[in-house]
Write a structure and sequence with these properties.
The complex is a heterodimer of chains A (about 110) and B (about 120). Chain A is an all-beta fold and about 110 residues long. Chain A has no helices and 12 strands. The radius of gyration of chain B is 14 Å and the shape is globular. Classes of the chains: A mainly beta (about 110), B mainly beta (about 120).
């Protein structure tokens, strides 16, 4: 069946460090892929998405590329800020249902 | 736009009582809303799909009589946890999308979540 696996957290980085949060998926067909973010005390928000292979989603300095050959959708940011501290969820959409990863908590220290 | 509001954000209740959680789409209509449950360090688990004017569709393993869902209008869905027990303590999240958008883009908008603690 369809599934999403993302790296366990928490991930702790210093400000201005490079960020990678790994996400791999298992799916039949060609799912759409998403990264959602949950800031402390707020609801989940769509961060970026990609709908087909080799697409790159980007927003707020974050990027993720849909890699069909490695079934991955890793989230990256070149220089993180304290305000990026949040929980990040990778998800795929298949047959109109979202399948979620477990979430990765990111902590950025000044 | 596309704001979803959930209330209450936190609720503590005694075992055996019932708790109602509301999910409202503030600036759009949503024929369909989704209810999730989030366990610590686990992914979101879809509990049910709430359909305006009709019965909710429950995922396998979710007790319909335990988790009552009512979608009485295009902007409001409620989840009632009946006869709550400590094992029902969890983080409940709702989501919705302007009609048609989810089917076309997969984008969902989420409420802030409700933390239920059953003593």
């Amino acid at each position: 069946g369809n599934s999403v696996t993302q790296m366990e957290g928490p991930v702790t980085l210093s400000e201005e460090a490079f960020l990678t949060i790994n996400c791999t998926y298992t799916a039949t067909g060609y799912p759409s892929l998403f990264w959602y973010v949950q800031y402390p005390g707020e609801g989940l928000q769509l961060l970026l998405k990609a709908t087909k292979a080799d697409d790159k989603g980007s927003n707020k300095g974050f990027e993720a590329t849909y890699r069909k050959e490695t079934t991955s959708f890793h989230l990256e940011k070149g220089s993180v800020q304290v305000s990026d501290s949040a929980v990040y969820f990778c998800a795929l959409r298949s047959n109109y249902q979202l399948i979620w990863g477990a979430g990765t908590k990111l902590i950025i220290k000044p | 736009g596309a704001v979803v509001s959930q209330h209450p954000s936190r609720v503590i209740c005694k075992s055996g009582t019932s708790v109602k959680i509301e999910c409202r789409s503030l600036d759009f209509q949503a024929t369909t809303m989704f209810w999730y449950r989030q366990f610590p360090k686990k992914s979101l688990m879809l509990m049910a799909t709430s359909n305006e004017g009709s019965k909710a569709t429950y995922e396998q393993g979710v007790e319909k009589d335990k988790f009552l869902i009512n979608h009485a209008s295009l902007t409001l869905s409620t989840l009632t946890v009946t006869s709550a027990h400590p094992e029902d303590s969890s983080f409940y999240i709702c989501s919705a999308s302007p009609d048609g958008r989810y089917r076309d883009t997969g984008e969902l908008f989420f409420g802030e979540g409700s933390r239920l603690t059953v003593l």
